[in-house]
Design brief:
This protein is of the alpha/beta class. The chain has 11 helices and 8 strands. The chain is globular and about 45 Å long.
Length: 252
C-alpha cells in the first residue's frame, strides 16, 4: 500500500517571523495526531531550511518532514549560486522537488538535467519529487498524454529501476497558480496513464511509485482528488502558505 503524501511548496515566499508562526500553527494542528498511512512535508526557500529544520525538531513534529525546492545536477564544484543534494541532506531534507514547471519554463531545464538532479538526490539518500505536466496549448491540441509520457520516458532512460525510490508529481501547467484544477477524473486518467507507462517498464516499479497531483489543490477539492486510486497525494503550492489550509488538506 502506497502512503498518501502531501508536500507543501512555498516557492519564493516566507520570512523568519511568518515561518515560525506557520510551524507553530501546524504543530498545534497536528498535536491530536494525523490519519495513519500518511506523510507530510514542507519545502521552504533555501535560506530558511535551517530555521525550519530547527523548528520542526523543537516542536517534535514527527508527522512533518523537510524538503527543498530544487538542487544542483552536480555534487560539488565551481557552480556559483547552486546548492548540492549533499548540502540539502545535511539540512535534514527528506524530499527534493526537481523539474517543477517554473524551473522548466523560467530556467529552461530539460528532462536530461532533471534526471541528473534526481540522481543526485537519490545518491544523497533523499527522495526526488519529479514534476511532469503539459501546458494549456499542449492540452488544447490533444497532446497532453503524449507530452507527459515523453517526460516520464526521459526519466526512465536515466533512472531505470531507481525510479521506484522517487515520487512523480503530475502538475498540469495550466492549473498551477491559476485557480483552475483538473477534475478528479481527468487527474486520475493521467495518473493512470503514467502508472501504465511505468508498468510497461517494470510492474514492480509501477506499483511502488507514488504519483502526486499538483495544480491549485485546496481543501475543498482535495478529498475528491485523494480518493482516486492512482492519486497518492498532492504537491501543494499557494494553498500551503496558509497553515490552516495546509492542515485541512492534510486531513482531507
Amino acid at each position: 500500500m502506497r502512503p498518501l503524501i502531501v508536500i507543501g511548496n512555498w516557492k519564493m515566499n516566507g520570512n523568519l517571523a511568518s515561518n515560525q508562526d506557520w510551524i507553530k500553527t501546524v504543530a498545534r494542528g497536528m498535536e491530536s495526531g494525523m490519519p495513519s498511512g500518511r506523510q507530510f512535508a514542507v519545502c521552504p526557500p533555501f535560506p530558511y531550511l535551517s530555521q525550519c529544520a530547527t523548528l520542526i525538531k523543537e516542536h517534535s513534529l514527527a508527522f512533518l518532514s523537510l524538503g527543498a525546492q530544487d538542487t544542483s545536477a552536480h555534487e560539488v564544484g565551481a557552480y556559483t549560486g547552486e546548492v548540492s543534494s549533499v548540502m540539502l541532506k545535511e539540512m535534514a531534507c527528506k524530499y527534493v522537488i526537481v523539474g517543477h514547471s517554473e524551473r522548466r519554463q523560467m530556467h529552461h531545464e530539460a528532462d536530461e538535467i532533471i534526471a541528473a538532479k534526481a540522481l543526485q538526490v537519490l545518491d544523497a539518500g533523499m527522495t526526488p519529487v519529479i514534476c511532469v505536466g503539459e501546458t494549456a496549448d499542449e492540452k488544447n491540441s490533444g497532446r497532453a498524454v503524449e507530452v507527459v509520457r515523453g517526460q516520464v520516458a526521459k526519466q526512465l532512460m536515466v533512472l531505470q529501476d531507481r525510479l521506484a525510490d522517487c515520487l512523480i508529481a503530475y502538475e498540469p501547467v495550466w492549473a498551477i497558480g491559476t485557480g483552475k484544477v483538473a477534475s478528479a477524473q481527468v487527474a486520475q486518467d493521467m495518473h493512470r496513464a503514467i502508472r501504465l507507462q511505468l508498468a510497461e517498464f517494470d510492474e514492480d516499479v509501477a506499483s511502488h511509485v507514488g504519483i502526486l497531483y499538483g495544480g491549485s489543490i485546496k481543501s475543498d477539492n482535495a478529498v475528491e482528488l485523494f480518493a482516486m486510486p492512482d492519486i497518492d497525494g498532492g504537491l501543494v503550492g499557494g494553498a500551503s502558505l496558509d497553515p490552516q489550509e495546509f492542515l485541512a488538506i492534510c486531513q482531507a
